[in-house]
Each structure stands twice: as C-alpha cells, then as structure tokens.
Amino acid sequence: MANAVRFLLGFEEQTVSDADPNMTVLSWLRTVAGRCGTKEGCAEGDCGACTVVLGEPDDQGGLRYRAVNACILFLPVLHGRQLVTVEHLRESDGRLHPAQEAMVACHGSQCGFCTPGFVMSLFALFHNERDADRRRIEDVIAGNLCRCTGYRPILDAAQRMLAMGGEDRFSRREEETLSRLRELDDGEMLTLAGAGRRYFAPRTVDALAELRRQYPEATMLAGGTDVGLWVTKQHRDLDTLVYTGSVAGLDSIEEHADTLDIGAAVTHSTAMERIAAHYPDFGELLRRFASVQIRNSGTLGGNIANASPIGDSMPVLIALGAELVLRRGHERRSLPIEDFFLDYRKTALTQGEFLERIRIPVAGADRTLRCYKISKRFDQDISAVCLAVCLRLDGDRVAAIRIGVGGMAAIPARARAVEQALAGRSWNDDAVEAACAVLEREFQPLTDMRAGADYRRLVTRQLLRKCLLETTRPAVATRVLEYREVSA
Amino acid sequence: MSSVPERILPEFVPGARTAHRALAHESAVGHVTGGATYTDDIPEPRNLLHAWVRLSDRAHAGITRLDVEACRQAPGVVAVMTHDDLKAATDVGPVAPGDLVFADGEVTYWGQALFAVAADSIDSARRAAMLAEVKYEEREAILDIRQALERDAAVSPVRTIVQGDPEGAIRGSAHRIRGQLAIGGQDHFYLEGQVAMAVPQEGGDMLVYSSTQHPSEVQHLVAGVLGLPDHAVVVEARRLGGGFGGKETQAAHIAAIAAVLAQQAGRPVKLRLDRDDDMILTGKRHDFLVKYEAGFDPDGRLEGVDFMLASRCGISPDLSDAINDRAMYHADNAYYLPNVRIVSHRCRTNTVSNTAFRGFGGPQGMMAIEYVLDEVARYLGRDPLDVRKTNLYGVEERNLTPYGQVVEDNILPRLFEQVERSADYAARRRAVDAFNRENPVLRKGIAITPVKFGISFTTTHLNQGGALVLVYTDGSVQLNHGGIEMGQGLYTKVAQLVAEEFGIALDRVRVTATTTGKVPNTSATAASAGSDLNGAAAVEACRKIKGRLRDFAAGRFGIAGESLRFEADALHAGEQRLCSFAELCKQAHLGRIQLSDTGFYATPDIHVDKDTMRGKPFYYFAYGIACAEVVVDSLTGEYRVLRADVIHDCGQSLNPAVDMGQVEGGFIQGMGWLTTEELYWDDRGRLMTHAPSTYKIPVASDVPDDFRVELASWSRNRAAAVRRSKAVGEPPLMLGISVFHALKDAIASLAPKGCSVHLDAPATPERVLLAMERLRRATDPAAAGEPVEEDAES
Ligand SMILES: Cc1cc2nc3c(=O)[nH]c(=O)nc-3n(C[C@H](O)[C@H](O)[C@H](O)COP(=O)(O)OP(=O)(O)OC[C@H]3O[C@@H](n4cnc5c(N)ncnc54)[C@H](O)[C@@H]3O)c2cc1C
Ligand code: FES
Ligand code: FES
Fold first, then answer.
1. CA distance B472 to B475
2. Is the N-terminal amide bond of B10 cis, ω within 30° of 0?
3. I need a labelling partner for B100 at 20 to 30 A (CA). Which of A183, B171, B463, B717 fits?
C-alpha cells in the first residue's frame, strides 16, 4: 500500500506524505513549491491560466501528455504522474521551447498573465498532434482565455510552433521518464491521511466497490471537474475522497456489435473520438463540451452522476436510449438513463452504490441523431438549452423517436409527450407544429443568467423545426458553424 | 499543413533604429517562461498575513447588527477591521467621497465590503470572516436606470451640450424617427484579479505593492486611511495582468484594506480577491439607456438630433462624471451634427459603482449615433454605408463638433475609401443580399463603422507625465516613468524612445518598476495617453542629459555641439566615430557632468469650459474603420463573424507590433462587449454573472475566420505628439461596433425595406432571435400568434 503521493515535478522526484487531499495542484505549486509561473485566474477551470501538463504511461507503452487545469486538480491525483509546468520547458542551455519561441516571435503575449497557460496548452499540442490545423488549434486553446491579444497572434504562434517541429527535452527523455514513473507507482492502492482527511485511490473495481460500501458517505472523485469546484468555490470540506481514476478497467471502452460500453471513468477526450465515429453530431457536441483541459480530466460517468439539469451528455444519452450499469458491492443492476434522474440533482444511486458503466446502443444505421446545444458562446460554455433527437423513419412516417432535453426542467429529461405526439405520424410541418404545442405544455423552464424562459421555450421549438428541416431537406444550410467550414 | 501567415507590418520611419520598429514586448521572454513577476508572485515576506473581505448580501439595508467577535477569536486570525476600527479616513472616493472602505451602518449595494480579516492563511481568513453575525433591515433599492430616472436618483447633476436649434431642425425636417436603445455594461475580466500587498516599514511607513493603473492615487488614498502624509507611503507596480480601466480607481480600495490590516497587525498583509469577489466587489463599464429623436432629409442627412443618454453609475460618483462627459463628447463619433442636444443623466443605483473601462464612455456615445444612422438608413431603405458617408465630418467645412472643437485632422474619407476597396464592400454587399434571398435559415449581414476618438483626458490637468532617466558610467540606462505596464507595451515603447534618443541598443535600457518613490504625482495610465505623456517626458529627460553630454564633448573634442550625433552606441561627428557611448559617459562623469535627469510633459493647446463643456478638450483625434460580415441562424439567433477588415490610425506608430496587438485585441474586446458579454443582475440586485463560467468573453474560435487588420501607415499625427505617433489603447475597442451593426443588418434581411430593427446590446443569440421574432411578427400576420417577450430594457 502506498502512503505518500509520489510524482515527478518536471524531472525531479517529489514525495508528499502529509498532503491535504483537498489541496489543489495550483495552490501546492504556488504556496508550497514556490513556483509562481502557473497563474490563478478563476480557480474554477474556466480561464486556463493555471494550465499544466500531466505526463503518464499510455496503453501502448508510450508516454502521453495532456493539459489539465491545476486549479481544480487535487494534489494526490499526481501520484505516479509527471507534472510539467511552464518553468520546465526551457532547454538546460536556456534555449526556449518551440512553444515559447513561437509565442515570442508572433507577439503572442501582451500583459502575459494568460501566457503560461497558453504555452502549456501549446506544449501538449506539440506532443500530441503535429498536424493540427487552424480549427483544431482553436479547439485546443478554447479553454484558455486571453483578454489582451484577441488570440490571432496566439493562433499564429501555434501554427509556427508546429511548423518548427523537432524534439524537446521531454521527448528526448521519454524512456527515462517512463521508467521513473513505473518506479514511483507500485501499482498498489494509494491511501492518504492528511489534515484530518482521507483519500483512497483503489486499483480494481472490486476494491472500489468495497471502499464504497465501507465509506458510503465518501465523495467519489473522478475527473474532479465538478468536485474540485466544491472545494475552490463552495469551500466545502471533503473529508473522504475515493478516486476512480486509477481503477483498472473503469477507464475502458468496449465495442460490441450493438453497444458501445463505456467505463464510468473514461474521460470525455477518450470517449469523444469513439462516440463521434458512430454519431458525428454527438461528437460535435462533445467537441463543444467545456475545453480540452476539462475533457482531459472530466468523465462521462461524472457528468451523469453529477446530474446537472444542464449537463450536456445526458439529453443525448437519453435520446439514444443508453443504459447505466450501477453497482453496489457485487450486485449490479441496469437502468435506462432517463430513470436515473429523480429530481433536481437527485439520482437513483442507493447508499454505497456507484456508476460502473454506460452502454450506448450503436446498431441501426437507419437511426438519425441530431444534437443541438444553445449557449451564449460556442466554445467552453454551459448550455442554456440542449436538445437531442433520435429518429427512425419508415418512409415519411415516424417509426420511432426519442427526444432528450436539457435546460428545460430540473433534470435532464425525456420529452415523452412530444415523442408521443410525433410517433406514427408523417414527419412533416404539421406534425412538428403539433409537437411544438405539446413541447410548450410539457416543460416550464426557468429564467436565469444563461437565458430567459421564453427564449428557452422558443428556441427549443425552433430546434425541433430545424431537426425536421435537416432530416427532410438536407441541402438547406442550417448551421452557422458548418457554414463556416463551407465558406473557409 | 497550412503555412504560417507572416504578418506584414509597415515600415514607418525608415532610418529609425529602435523607435517605430516592430520589436517584441520587453517582457516577452518572461511571459513565456513564467519568469515575469506579478504582484501575487513577489516572494512573500516573513510573517505575511492573508486577508479576506466579507461582502454584503443585500442591495440596500440598514445593518442592525455586525458582530465580529467570533472572527477575532477564530484560529489564525491576527486582525479584523470594520468601519469602526478605522483610525483616519474611511472613504477612498477618487474624485468625490462616496466609496467607503467598509460599510457604515448601512449597505448600499450587494457585495459591498462589510469588514476584513487578516489571518495566517487565506483559508483561515475566509473561514473566520464567515463567522461574523450580520443582521439587516432591508430597505427599498433602486437597481436600474429606469427606476433611477423615475426617482431622480443621481450621483451628480444632469449636463447638457447644445449646438444650433435641434428642436426646430427636427421639426422642420422631411423625416423624423425616434426610439431607444439599451447598451449593457462590461466586466473588465483582466486575467490577473485585483491584488495588493502592504508591508509595514520602519517609523510606521507603508510600502504597498499594488496591481494598479494609478499608483499616485493609491498612495494618496492609502496615506489617508492610515492617517499618514503621502511621503510615508510608497506604491510600486512592475506589471499588471491586464487593467482596461478596472484598476484605475478600483485598486485603491483593495490596497487600502490591505494597508489598514497591515497597520493594525504590524505585519505584512496580502489581499488577493478571488475571481467571484473581484467581479462582485469592483465596478464595470456603465450600462446606458439612450433615447433619441432625429430629423433628416431624404438622403439621410441629419438635420437635428436630440439625445438623452442615461447611465447607471452605481452607488457613488467614482469617475462617472468624466465618463459620461466623454460619452457626450463621442455622441457625434464621425458625423457632423449641425443641430444637436445631448442630455446626460448620471443615475445613482444600489449597485456597485461603475468605473473606467477602455473607451471611458466613448463607446456608449458612439453606439448611440451609429444606431441612429442605421435606423435612418432602415427607414429610408438605403444602405447604411451611404447614410454614414453622407453625414461624415468634412475636411474643410462641416467640421465643427457639438462642443465647439474644429476637427482639423479628419482622415475619415480616405479610411472609408480604403476599406471599401480592400474589403470589396460593394460586391460583398450584393453577395450578402443574394445569399439572403436564397437561404431560408441562415442570414448574412455586413456593416462598416468608423471611429473618431478624442485623445487627452477631458479633465485637463491630468494631461501631464513625468520620467526619470538614469545613465550610468558604463553607458547603460535605467528608465522610470509614471506610466504602468499592463500589457499595452508602454514600457517597450518608452524604452524604444530612450534608446533612440541616445542612439543605443534597446537592451542597454532597463525599465524599472513604476513607483511613487521615483516619479511623483502622476496621472493614471489611462485615456490612451500613456506613451504620449510618459514617452514625451522621457524624451525630454534624455534631451537634457544629451545636451550636457554634447556640451561636454564639444569641449573635449573641440567640435561644435550641433554637429554631434548619438548613433550606433557611439558619439559621431559627421562620418567620424568619436567614442563609444559608454566611454563618453565615463568621461563625462569624471568631468563631473550630471548623468541623470527628470523629464516632464504637459499636453499643450487644450482647454474646456467646465460649465458649457465647450472648448478644445482633445489634442487630436485617432481614427479607425472596420467592416464586419456575419452569418446568423434565423432559427436560433446563433451567429458567427465570418470576416472583418480593419484599418486603424496610429499615426507614425512607435511599435507596429505592439500597436497591431492593441488594434486586434481592442476589436475583439469591443465585439465581446456587444455580443456575448452579458452582465445579469437578479431582481434583488445581485450580480449572477460573476465568474468566467457565466460571463463569456470571446475565445479563440470567436475571432473572425478571416481577420484582416492593417495600420494606416500613411497617417502622421498633425499634432506634435511624440514622434508623430498616435495613442492606440482605447480607440480600436470601438471598431467592434461594426459587428453589432452587421448583426442588425442580418436581422433586417428578414423584413421588407423600411422596417425599423430594434436590437439592444449585448446582442446575445437570445436578443438576436427575439429581435428577429419581433420583425417576423410585425411583417407576417401568420406568425403573429406566438408570444415574444420584449427585452427588459425596451
Ligand atoms: C470549466 C468547466 C466547463 C464545463 N463545461 C461543461 C459542459 O460544457 N457541459 C457539461 O455537461 N458539463 C460541463 N462541466 C461540468 C463537468 O466538467 C462535467 O460534469 C464532467 O463530466 C464531470 O466529470 P468528472 O469526472 O470531472 O466528475 P467529478 O467532478 O469527479 O464528479 C462529479 C460527480 O459525480 C460523482 N461521481 C463521479 N464518478 C462516479 C461514479 N463512478 N459513480 C458515482 N458517482 C460518481 C462525484 O461524486 C460527483 O458527485 C464543466 C465544468 C467546468 C469546470
Ligand atoms: S485558474 Fe482559471 S482555469 Fe484554473
Ligand atoms: S496577454 Fe493579457 S490576458 Fe492574454
């Protein structure tokens, strides 16, 4: 059993034995390690000033680097990983890293406060995707806010960095890093007690199930992109944390003939690619889900278990008819996802139970899925309204339809009355107008800072109309984001 | 892979060695390596305490009980300060009182500071602060402009500018329109939040590191709350992680809290606001309500305009007078208004006191007139571009502003002509119209809007700057001036000027942190005037030193002083290199010549009559123009900016790379203000958008797909500003107005010509869709059934 957090800070080994499990990596860096290059701009994962990069072994025996937000990452999560910050990038002879050199050459910094975060996002890009185009780069830095530059020089810098190519001190020392990481992590469960709090990182699903039973009041911690904010924004004390990110198998995706079976700890980044292959519209929704940093930490399971009425994956999973596998001890049960949400942030999980897997039907090429996310900003924003429609037509008749909505009720909901109004009817204006009237009655959304109730209602009706148009008159351009592709 | 687009930056002044060149920001390497130190990164002194401020959760209420005893007893707590614990001044109002350090028996806005705690960690300070017992007796609150207007609640009296006979002109016009427009505020969202660290010195003095745009004011106000003379307080700032006006007056409050706690505890105290508290506790751009009436001829030429501009100032005067004055001074923007009245209401509300923000009221004034011209064009069924051009200021005539200043440097006609050509406006206008005829869902819009922005503080005495230049015997130079580096590249530009003066390489000039201990009594780094004022002052200091060096060398080499040149790190006479600059300095020192000096600059030739607001408030104008094209989803109101063409006037740019950065960044920030950046208060006066999760500034993918930005390299400042450059900090923000009007244009395509298009700002997808629904309802009887809620402010 491991009792201390062991990780590499750059290339330097660190052992922290008395870590407070609620301490974030950012506050450790700035206040304990005295490394102030990494900045705090919001402490809620939204600005990217705190972006750092984690190095860890991938499934192919290589080392992968991913950008994450240090401000909502708890320190023990570093166990067995390499933490790279902006101070580590320079070569030992003082030469700048290509990410840094390109930023200087392109005048990519003004006040400079956002810059370390951008440099780290670019550093991860340098290691992961040398062929990224401008659009993809926009995606990669969607989680980094800059108030000064207007971004163009930073986009230029990213392209320039990729064109420079080459190696850096991290790629040259990859083998060494891998073997040192293997030494740091003995594969045993990490158990910590610091500042009166406990932290467990079990390695098997059985151990997780056992801990969950033993400590039913403990907080399950997956990516921490919701849980982290409970500490940094709601100032809650999380006395016992059970981390799912080291559990073997919980991060696996299994492809079966008719289902995609996704472990609860699979991150959005990992899930996105596989899901997009089956459902491009779902893939696009996930692309607009938060930012790269958040998707690199946050999990599909966490999104569902968090049960926010404006969580993005749930309306789609509802429309697709996904099933959840819940586990308590050795018992498993499965539940249609729409039955998981009972009331505002209340789920069907019983004491000691947890979400193990998510099963998404993929069979049936005759099904069409359309997803729509309405927000003030396209990237890195929370939905005002989310609508997902999964439709099977028989001729022009609606043979089957499932509709999931977010932002319209206290829970992610299935629009059953609307579905009924459409089932069996001809898929045309009359049917959709009738369905719009039903929609109006079925949901009573709120007015808040994201949108007014009237807009929520109006735009949901409009999205249903749009869905009709897109499925019956595919030649009509209906999406400003896609239009941009056409014109570019 | 696509190749990297090389940005072509114009050569401004061939021959200049360092000035006018596109050099990197002086801290660029520090920025990218994490080595650049911000206030929160300064190594913490021993015994440092951390502060937390407890904020009110009522908009207007009597405080019937405030018991902080439990806070004082909490673990780790060293000091607690309430209003009653303050020993000297209790108000940090910058111009007039009204900004209390801590609430005094009453809270007057949601998020007002009640008291502060200093403890051994942020966590203990916060936990302790939550232990206080606070009881309120709620009072009626005035929350928005309408309520304030109804009740005559104002932070200062109404002001009016009148020229000609607006009423008569409107009455006598062939056509008239009237309407109103609500313009939202804007949070600065500097990436570095407000922060100050106060470190007690011997004899009761205080050293304050503050993320401020105005160290002299922080010094004066901190001295006030500590009960000390100004000379006992030193305020220092090396760099800010963004300011945008938000750290002009607002930083003083933060510094004052840190300082009183430090004085009380006898230990250093740091106060760094959490982002949410920062957004709740500090002021923002003023939101405005504009009412207008305009009379015009059949060509759309304005004959009379009557404006009512009302702004939400919040609870105190702060800088609201100057901000609203500037709004009035920009309600003409680029257009000749022969008969005009501008009435300005400065509304007092139970909300946080609004403050300076890039443009300082100018953007709101410009929005007013641009909106009127767009509506005139809609009314006449004409292209708004034609109506704008019809109303432009003339070069020789039709060039008198509403406040009596003659526009002497008008380059607008050339900018219009250039952008119409480079943006290929006519063809794209036709393409947009054709697209809109063919597409049932997506709609396009295109618009060109100009900027004419007056440069100088309208409070005339603020137009002064100072510098201190120290030359050492090895020829290296240390430069200090009153300006603050907040990303705008001021330190770089002034260093370039100094290097150019001495003919030395840029790396021989080191800029040191701005401190009240070196250059005193400075103005805020604001009004875009940073390099005009501080640059000119630094040049003056250099010239004094050079004058002495020249006299010394003349004697030493027996050459007439006038023929000596400072160039290529050396002193030259004609083609002959006499000695290195370092050698000259060393010799001069041995010759007992003073190698350091101060410089001072006061902008000449400006004056305003305080009562009538007439005169010449501006030394010169900076100009710019933008053409934006958008595509809008008429089903949802979502949109994208497809292309933007910008031409901006920086005169003879001191650093084209830095200026380009200001222009691009300004455009995007202005676009954000008018599109996605929505501030939302609930009906109890609580700000609900107080973090980046809910307040949405633009991200990289919001940048126009095709973004073409040029500096007008042919422009030269007619006024004798430093090296004929022009100020560039604020003006480009207002180029973003083009995006708002492109959206309005796209919306208009849903209705026949002649329809008015009402759109308030920010034009969120929600407002865009509701505007389209209103139009559809107005023009299509079949669509009349569905209810559409009017915007709150209309
Ligand atoms: C900046 C930012 C942007 C965001 N943008 C979006 C967005 O666009 N759309 C969106 O929907 N969400 C968004 N979120 C919310 C969040 O990222 C997602 O909900 C994410 O999927 C949560 O996953 P996680 O792994 O981080 O969960 P965690 O934070 O670790 O956990 C979330 C909840 O799930 C519980 N939990 C986790 N795993 C299990 C399990 N296996 N069994 C039972 N309970 C479990 C936890 O105890 C907790 O209650 C955003 C968050 C941030 C900070
Ligand atoms: S500090 Fe803003 S994302 Fe972490
Ligand atoms: S350079 Fe200032 S926020 Fe990006």
1. 5
2. no
3. B463
pLDDT under 50: residue ranges of chain A: 485-488
Residue A312, ligand 1, Cβ within 6 A = yes
- Classify residue B550 by its DSSP letter: H
Chain B residues with CB under 8 Å of A449 CB are 678, 680, 688-689, 694
* Nearest residue, CB atoms, B703 vs list A38, A147, A151: A151
Which ligand sits closest to the CA of B38? 3
The maximal CA–CA distance of chain B, rounded, in angstroms, is: 94
pLDDT at A156: 98
Residue A59 has a pLDDT of 86
> Which pair of structure tokens corresponds to residue A428?
């045309």
Structure tokens at A70: 């240090």
The series of mean pLDDT values per 10 residues for chain B, 794 residues long, is 48 79 96 98 97 98 98 98 98 97 98 98 97 98 98 98 98 98 98 98 98 98 98 98 98 98 98 98 98 98 98 98 98 98 98 98 98 98 98 97 98 98 98 96 98 95 96 98 97 97 97 97 91 95 97 95 94 95 98 98 94 96 98 98 98 96 98 98 97 98 96 95 95 98 97 95 98 89 48 40
Looking at residue B629, what is its pLDDT? 98
DSSP per-residue letters across B39-52: GGGSPPPTT-EEEE
pLDDT digits (tens, 9 = 90+) for B278-308: 999 999 999 999 999 999 999 999 999 999 9
DSSP H or E segment with residue A128: helix A115-128
8 Å CB contact of A110 and B488: yes
Dihedrals φ, ψ of B236, to 5°?
-130, 140
Which region, left, alpha or beta, applies to residue B115 given φ > 0 means left and ψ of -120 to 50 means alpha?
beta
Task: Return the CA Rg of chain B.
Answer: 27
pLDDT at A366: 86
Residue of A nearest to B191 (CA): A41
Torsion angle defined by CA atoms of residues A221, A222, A226 and A230, in that order, rounded to the nearest 10 degrees: 20
Return d(Cα B227, Cα B293) in angstroms, integer: 52
Three-state DSSP at A167 gives: coil
Which residue does chain A place closest to B657, by CA atoms? A107
Q: What is the largest CA-CA distance in chain A?
A: 72
- Write out the two tokens for B659: 């200026």
d(CA A196, CA A192): 10
- Rounded Cα distance between B547 and B559, Å, is 14
Residue B669: CA atoms inside 13 Å, Cβ hemisphere, count? 30
CA–CA dist B50, B272 (Å, integer) = 8
Buried b (16+ CB within 10 A) or exposed e, B542-568: bebbbebbbebbbeeeebeeeebebee
Residues of B designated catalytic: 730
Block residue for tokens 């609430």: B103
* Cβ(B368)–Cβ(B181) below 8 Å: yes
Contact flag B275-A382 (C-beta cutoff 8 Å): no
Concatenating the DSSP letter of every residue in A289-302 gives SS-HHHHHH-BHHH
Please, where are the H alpha helices in B463-596?
490-502, 530, 536-557, 581-590
pTM of the model: 0.97
Report which DSSP code applies to A5: E
DSSP classification of residue B483: -
Test A484 with B191 for CB contact under 8 angstroms: no
Q: Beta-carbon neighbour count of residue A395 at 10 Å?
A: 8
CA of B152, closest CA in chain A: separation in Å? 28
- Residue B438 three-state SS: helix
Q: Of A13, A34, A142, give the one whose Cα is nearest residue A82.
A: A13
3-state secondary structure of A140: helix
Q: Domains for chain B: give ranges and CATH numbers.
A: 464-602 (3.30.365.10)
B662 neighbors B729 (Cβ within 8 angstroms)? yes
HSE at residue B28, side-chain half, CA atoms within 13 A, is 22
